[in-house]
Every structure is written in C-alpha cells, then in structure tokens.
Amino acid sequence: MKSKIFYALSIGNLLAFSFYLFSFTNKTTTTLDFQDKIIKVRGVVIVDSLGIERVIMGSHLPEPNFGKNGYGSRANSRGKNGVSGVMLYDAEGQERGGYVTDDNFGNAFLTLDSKTSMQLLLLSEPQGAASVILNSADRKNVVTLSTNDEDAGIKVKKNDKNIPLYENEK
Amino acid sequence: MKMKNNTMLFAVLFLFTISGKAQDIFIPKMTNINPVSYTDVTYIGSKDTVLVGTYSGRIAKRIKGNPKEIPVAKIQDEVFSLAYHPKRKEIAAATLEHGILIINAVTGKTIKSLPLKTTWSIAVFFSEDCKYLVTQDQKGNQYIWDASKNYQVLPLPADFPKGTIIAINTQNIATVVSPNKVTYWDRNNNTVQKEVTVDLKKFADMDTEGNFLSLNYNECTKYNSNSHTVAFKVKHPNWITHDVEDYSKVYEDNYSMNLTTAKFARNKMYTASIDRSIRVWDKATGELLKTLSDHKATVHKLRIAKGEKQMVSIDLKGGIFFWDLD
C-alpha cells in the first residue's frame, strides 16, 4: 500500500515538475529547421516589434481596416470579390499596396496606396489586356497607359480635364 | 515495469510540450489588425479619465498622468466605438461581428449583445440623458435601444429621416444628419420639428449656434446653417516631422494632408490629421492659433469632455494626450 502511495506521489511530483519546467520554456529558444520542408498553409502574417501586421501572404486576404468612414472600421471594399496574394501594411497597420489576383474577374493587380487612396495600379486582365494607372489623391490628375488586341493608348487627365494623346495614330 | 511506465510518461510529456509549442504559432484567421492602435475614446468622468478600445478587443481605462493602461475587458472581436453609461456603469462597445456589446465596466463581463441587421457600427452613443443607446450600421439601418428597459429595441416610424443620428437631447429631439439636410425629429410625437438645409461633404461636428464642421479630404469647412453660408475653410498648412536622430529638430514640408476629424469647443475649433498633428483655430475667424505635434502617428479621434474643459486625442499607435482647454 505504502509503495502504491509512494508511486502515486512520485508520478504526481514528476507531473508537477514537468509542468514547472514547461512554464520556463522560451518560444525563441527552439530553432526549427525547415530547410528541406515545403510549407502548405492558407496564410503567413509578418508582424513588427509592436505586433502590428506588416505583410500578409494569404488566401483570401482580409478587408482593409480603413474605409470611406475613416479609421477605426472595416472598409468592406472587396465585398464578395476576394483577393489572394501579398499585401503590405504601414507602421500604423494601414493597407498600402499589394500584389494579388481576384476570384471574380481573374485579374492580376499590383497596387501602391497612399494613406488616402490607391495611387498606382498595374493591372493585367485575363483576356490579354493590361493597364498602368497613376492617380493623384483627388483623382483630378490621372495618367493611364493601356493595351489590348484592338488598341493601345495613353491618356492624361490634368486638372480634371481629359487630354487624349496619340489617339487615332496610324 | 516501473521504468517502462516512467519512460512512457516522459514521452507523453515531451510530446505534449512539443505539440503545445507548435500550436502556438497558429492564428484562427487573417485580420490585418494593428493591436496597439486605439479605435475610439470616450470620457467616463468629467475629465482626466477615459475608456479606449482597440482592434484586438481590448477595452482599457486611461488616466491623465498615468502612462499605463488599466485593463477593463477583453473581448474576442474588434472594437470600433465605445460609449459609457455613468449611472449603470456600463460600456456599449460597437464590434465587427457581435453587434453592440453591453459590458459591465466594473467586472468587464459582457452582459448583453445587441444584434444589428447587417454589417457593423462604427459609432455608438448614449442620448444626453443616457436613457437611449443609439447607433447605425454600415448599410444605414438606424437603431435606438431603451437602456432603462434592458436595452429593448425601439421601433422607428417609417418616415423617420434617413441619415446619421448624431444626438438625442433631454427633450427627446433626435438630430439626424445627411449630406444636404439636418433634421430635428421630435420623438415625443414623431414629427419633424425643424429641417435645415446644409452642404456637408463629411459631417464632423456641430455646435449649439447652428455651425457645422464638414471634412473634404484635407479641407475643413465651417458652415453656418442659419445663414446657409460657408464661414471659412481651413487646411493644415504644412507637415511637421521630427528628425529621427534628434527629436528636437523639426522639419516643415508644404504638404496639406488628409484630415481625420474636427471638433468645436468653446471659441475654438480643432482639426486632426494623418500628418500626426492637431491644429487649433479661432472659431470666429478661422485663424490658426496653435499646432499640437506631440502625437507620433495619425491622430484619428478627438473627444471633448462635458463642460468643454478638456479634450482627449488618440492615434493609430496607441498614443493618447489630454489637452486642457483654455
């Protein structure tokens, strides 16, 4: 009987000591070697020293946390048109650009955003058209380069007035 | 036999340790959350003490002079807006996925969840007498709950004006703002008490004299609804930055950046911007009186304390400042 109690106490002691040791384990001390492994995941999130998410590689990417109503909300801008790829966020956590494809039209995008709007868009459409669009914040000054099988064009909007260039060139 | 049992036990514990560490790196979903950013701030006293909320679901108390947060509640959702009921000591928190949560400010426990028809709310507030809780969702559905009747939802009449309810005063008059009209709706007899034509791009604030502040990108307009005239427009004239190595060195660039909010208080008006500054303007003339450049990130909310003796400002990196108003 005594030996059974002793054994039970030993086990209990061992468990308690193991949990005690476990509490000291430091996540950073473990080095995982994945050099010859292939990782298959839905997303990877890179955070900075404050825990602010700075890069997300994923499918699908989350909605921006800045909308027409300002900071402190979700934009709901992509709606059901989910996008997947890589998104960059600034030191305040605001979406500032991405390299993505969308599920609906099948476009591929590369975008660079200011803190108020999208300033640069590189777009490749699935049927073989492409565009480069440069915007000012108020969209009154815009440069558009576009190509497709029927046409190629350069358009400039300056002070909110369209100034077509090289149209109808033979 | 004993040796074998011990070995097995060690093996189980080892696997438990490894699996625990491996699980630690996974998160339930991608959110692009900035956990340090304050999303809203609201006074819980006449001055010096406020509640702040975060995208990561943290609700905390901040007291002037105390650099640390005092935790109040932690919810598994994003918090966009806060309101405080001083008599019931309850917090109303507008969240992404759970509508409006009513939280006991003393225990931090969620008492009740008030569902929204669609989407979420980014602004929730109590009426002037704290009898009603008011909000609207992102699709424009308006909600009024009776706080004294366990937050019973109060149906709104079909002809209730469209727009954003921004206040309900002690006479039970609701102020509803839309870009071209401000309606004062008498909730006692469900009639329009007064309608005022306005021209507001994005409503920011109103005072008791019929003046409105409206934001349009980097421009703040003071609009007088009595005379239907624009009194003046102001812009932050520059972008002030500090040297990375030597913070006392200040640079000024001639950029006028996007404004995030604006408020009236006494004889002044205050504008905040992504340029990390707050500018103080003379309410009568629009003259720039002062630049407050203590924030180190986008200043996105300003709140004026009751009595207009103090203002609190928050930024997207968890910065908070209390400003005593002259």
UniProtKB/TrEMBL annotation, chain A:
Keyword field: Membrane, Transmembrane, Transmembrane helix
Transmembrane segments annotated in the record for this chain: 5-22
Protein name per its UniProtKB record: Uncharacterized protein
Species the sequence originates in: Flavobacterium humi
UniProtKB/TrEMBL annotation, chain B:
UniProt WD repeat ranges: 269-291, 292-326
SMART domains recorded: WD40
InterPro entries tied to this protein: Quinoprotein_ADH-like_sf (IPR011047), WD-F-box_domain-protein (IPR050995), WD40/YVTN_repeat-like_dom_sf (IPR015943), WD40_rpt (IPR001680)
Stretch forming the signal peptide: 1-22
Alphabetic keyword roster: Signal, WD repeat
Domain of life: Bacteria
Protein name in UniProt: WD40 repeat domain-containing protein
Species, as recorded: Flavobacterium humi
